[in-house]
Amino acid sequence: MARVRDFLLEMGKGFALVGTQHRLEVGGQDWYVDILFYHRRLRCLVAVDLKVGEFRPEHAGKMNFYLAALDDLEREPGENPSIGLILCRERNRVVVEYALRDLAAPVGVARYTVRVAGQLPPELAGVLPTPAEIEAGMPAPDPGGGGAADRDGG
Question: Which domain holds residue 128?
Fold first, then answer.
């Protein structure tokens, strides 16, 4: 999670880290957003949910839940509605389209890949960790499709 967080912070200007495993209390239950950013230029919270497996339709519902809770519990007056990003190892574009079709909240699904050292430019090949080193630092895939650190049971 730390590597993904650091990567996203370097992605562009304006991202500020709010926290990892950001706790939301809803209906007397605790829920955790894997990584929560604030984007200064967009003036909104950006929730990131990490999935070590393939995208599943229930991930969209969970993200929609997080965004509704963030908007009701944490959004400040004058800020824009929260945005969600689901990062998963694999995605089926048709499944993603159906899952997101009627969601009112802005949610994106992105696939991440681990590049083989031979595919990197020579000047980066010796500097970046190898695929084996990266995969050793990632949790094993959850057969149920849960997030990298799903502590909320789903």
Answer: 2-136
Element (H, E) at 119: none
Q: Does residue 150 form part of some domain?
A: no
What residue type is assigned to position 129 of the chain? P
Is the model's pTM score more than 0.85?
A: no
Q: What is the CATH number of the domain that holds 122?
A: 3.40.1350.10
Which stretches of the chain are assigned E, i.e. beta strand? 15-26, 29-39, 44-54, 83-90, 107-111
In order along its 154 residues, the chain shows pLDDT tens digits of: 666 666 666 666 778 889 999 999 999 999 999 999 998 888 999 999 988 889 898 998 999 999 999 999 999 999 999 988 888 888 888 888 888 787 777 677 766 654 444 454 555 455 555 556 655 555 454 445 444 444 444 4
> Are 74 and 39 in contact, with CB atoms under 8 Å apart?
no
The count of structural domains within the chain is 1
69: part of which helix (H) or strand (E)? helix 57-73
Distances (CA, A) of 77 to 5, 63, 89, 90, 106: 27, 22, 36, 37, 19
